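Let's do one together. I've listed all components of the complex below, 424 residues spread over four lines.
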Amino acid sequence: MSYQNTNPIKISLVEDDNIIREGFVMLLNENQGFRVVSAYNNCEDFLRNVQTDKPNVVLMDIELPGMNGIEGIERTKKIYPHAQIIVVTVYENDDLVFKALCAGAGGYLTKNMPSQRLIEAIREIMGGGAPMSTNIARLVVASFQKNHNSPLSSRETEVLELLSRGKSYTNIAEGLFIDKETVRTHIKNIYWKLEVHSKAEAIEKAMKEKLI
Amino acid sequence: MSYQNTNPIKISLVEDDNIIREGFVMLLNENQGFRVVSAYNNCEDFLRNVQTDKPNVVLMDIELPGMNGIEGIERTKKIYPHAQIIVVTVYENDDLVFKALCAGAGGYLTKNMPSQRLIEAIREIMGGGAPMSTNIARLVVASFQKNHNSPLSSRETEVLELLSRGKSYTNIAEGLFIDKETVRTHIKNIYWKLEVHSKAEAIEKAMKEKLI
DNA sequence: GTAAATACACCCAAATTGGGTGAGATTCAG
DNA sequence: CTGAATCTCACCCAATTTGGGTGTATTTAC
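Okay, and this is what the predicted structure of the assembly comes out as:
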């Protein structure tokens, strides 16, 4: 599949650093397959024009004057969901990564990448992928992994899992084909092991320690 | 960083197809930086030897005779957590991908990749990354994204979010600095909008439709 | 064979939940 | 500017849920 012989990929940039922004414009426009249709130093201006710019891909910074990038991603997805958004930032902070992805980012790159990586990333996201820097990919995958040293038995974990989905003791008992009293015993033991005294505390602690 | 001048990366294979397994062995051993220390056609044999094989990286198939790969990943992580596990399979099924990652896989490749991608992936995972096929990465990232056409208002979403963490009405009211009665009203409206009649149903539906 | 895990029983009181109905204040789009 | 949606609070009621206590029996794993 070659993009050279078809319509160029339309790109919008949102980046407040003039040097970097202009650098990206030049880098991308050099490439036959790409066309930078707009470049802004803030989200507000970008959002006002996104529906006329109609970009295929948006490269979005996070730290911006005025509205931040996370909010910007959310709003973009609301008014022009067709756009694929790649975050390009210096921040490798866990929290920010997940917030960006939850808000609708389709990729996440850190600025210390070689510039060629940017080109690849745009091709990747247009080809149905989700370009991420090495460390980001690891962060994302690690977020799925459970704690392999759980103090809870597998049955207890099962019970807590159902409890965390809002099920009542009765519900859980039915789901596991055991008596409600047995569920209660399990939950008492879970509370004792986790040193908590309520559903909410148990779920919070279990989430934090990746037990469920 | 060159692996050629240091200790080779030790690799174990778990793959029941003889042709593919032997193909991987040859491909990897051709490479100076790698050494295949063992290759099995089932998980059971692998698990018996992993502590003596001491692989850095394990390439694991999912569909296997006897114990399946997901179970295999879990057990491997229990008895030899040091190993980095890359799933190599034909299955691109959502459920399987997430189960594998939850179980402890650090990467996920589909078998239709060019063989060179396997080499890259092993280097990637040893370098702190999480190698994934294009479609898999998209699946994983998409799993974070919320539905941008939620029928719920932002306040209602906030309430449902707290409810899904096991909080009681009282808890939620305190957390949002509003009255318990207001929380009740929100929840009644949530139930009406989602056409459900209980906490568990609301959470289930909200999760399914990615409202929270 | 001992410890952990799993399962069940009964007591009790406080808290939670779901449903109904109504209503004032604010915000936002047409 | 107006009407719809949202956010806020109030009071009624009954059934269910929850957390804590204590005790027991069977199975499983090391």
